[in-house]
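Sample pair:
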Amino acid sequence: MRRTNVSFPHPILKEGSEDYIDCKFTISDQEEVFNSKKEINGKFTLTIEYELICFGLEKMILDKEAKVVLYLESKMTNYRKAFSFDSESTKLELEINKNELGDYIDIKPFIVSNVDKDGFILNEHNKVLFGSSTISIRKGDFLAEANGLHIILNKFDPLADKPSIFKIHVDYDLKEDYTVSWEYDHISITLNERLHGLYNKISQEPSYRIVLSSLFVTPALVDVLSAIKNANEDDLESYKTKKWYVVLSSRLKHLKIDLNSTYSLSEVANKILPIVSTAVSNIDYIINELYSDKGEK
């Protein structure tokens, strides 16, 4: 076993990391936060909850040695602000002036140390990785990171009416264009630095967001559908505990699709995300528009 997180000298609780054992840190999914959105007197309110399964970090939060923080950013307006949860509450209602925001906002959740601490040792730390290490943390150090959210505020998002079963991340060391995994509750799409730059550029122009489905989400969905179709009994039982499987099964049942029949999986993916197929003929045009800036290749 080797460390999957080499960016920090201390353990970080995050999806895909082996630094903690049997722990997790998550926040409300995209659909829940989008549906909580209210606009009153020129202000947006959003309600967000977090779930933390880690006694050691929970105790640090209750003892005010750590805090849960949401970092909000709207790149269109350069809005940046951090909001902290009360140490005794897992729910936070954000209130933001509408005129400070663009059409969307990115939300990144962290658990942050409030103290300098030598001998940072929790029972949940992976003893194989950190058993003999002397670990120190300083005030402001990240202790945990949950998957972030991209919330559309003003304009129609073609994916907003779908349950949020996809998460898109960046891995700056990734050699392939992208990888797809589905071992957790979400279908995780990891992009290399180049493709993530394209993703960010598309995200900043809401009218192009549908291209995200064609470029990233649809191929990932085809991979997942193939995994379901070819799964053995043990794998299928494991899938049934995942949120993405519950959502896809419901959708397939509604569409009266049996994956064991002779369906094209690409055709099935387009039925699940029907709005994507309307944009396919425009992808070349949109990509050219995105890269039409002088000097950009």
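The two ends are 40 Å apart (CA to CA).
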